[in-house]
Amino acid sequence: MNQLRQLCQERLTIMFNGKDRPFVAERLRQELDTVKTNGQIGAFENASEKVQQLKAQGVSCRLTGAGCCSLISYLMNFSGVDPTEHGLPYERFLQANSTGTIKFRFDANSHTNGSEEDFEAMLEEASCDVVNFQQSTSLSAIPCLVAQEIRQTDSDFDLTSIPLNDAAAFEILQSRDVEGISQCEGDSIRSLLPVLKPSCLTDIAAITGIQLGKIHEAGILDEYIYRGSKRKGQLSEGCCATEMLHETRGLILFQEQIMLIMNRVADIPMTDAYSFIKAVARRQWEQATTTKDWFIVQAVGNGVNEPEASRLFERIWDAATRAACMSHHLAEAVSTYQAAFLKAHFPNEFSRKLQIIQRRGTKTA
User: Fold this and answer.
1) 59-64 β-sheet, strand order
2) Mean pLDDT value of segment 111-116
3) Residue 304 to residue 296: CA distance in whole angstroms
4) pLDDT tens digits for range 338-360
């Protein structure tokens, strides 16, 4: 535990400074205490060892899934998602797995010229009970491959250190010029990007979450577009959850948003909020109804009028039937943004890697 704590605290000093550091330090303390209580120290250490072994063999690894909501994952450089910036509750990953085996999911791609079969065998050998490595899709591998080429002339280039608010990158994502960018190549999403105009990581996560998941089937896309065009960023007028939903145009799109709303409006513990989401998904109506009664009583006790609390919970219940994992979609959004950044600022290197991948695909076909 001491080794994990020391590593995280050293990285925290490097990656955070100023007024945010005390808040982040407290979040780290809570996570480390949870990891220790749940017996998850070995999982983080095992994951770190496996990742380092693969990196030594010329493999890049990128954490996906709910594990990206952990600050420890971010400080250990597993993930490019800062959970404190996006309000991601660590309970979605650490506490949700407190009674079972915690599992990290990594996308990996090789920088060597070995065969695909050998690479797959390498990943299978590296995978274990707590870590699963899977090969990146061709397009999602492009950022790492381009970064590798850039480092041949600029050894200090670090893909994880690029600014996440670059205007040129978002200009690419607001256009139809998204060839080679993972998550954006389908005809439907390519036609939507100029309309939706993503301008931050959360926008990208929301767009892909809607388009690729059950959210799309629920007709949320039309509402998301309407709210953007009319600048209607509210859940409902005067709703106590409006501020928490500003980045998703007032819509509840993600499980983590449900957890935060239930916690902040009605003091429902994060773990119980996540249990409610799972109960709805499993059609365990009795448990879900009990949580509804609890939420309304607590919200009213916190000053919310009863009709508003009831309306809000109905929206929460509806969202729980199709909400996506925000941690996962933000991880994908980082990869998408990195590709757009590289296409904007290193077009020649990006084009060369894209052509190589396209040629490989043609040969495979």
Assistant:
1) 59-64, 104-110, 131-135
2) 76
3) 9
4) 999 999 999 999 999 999 888 86
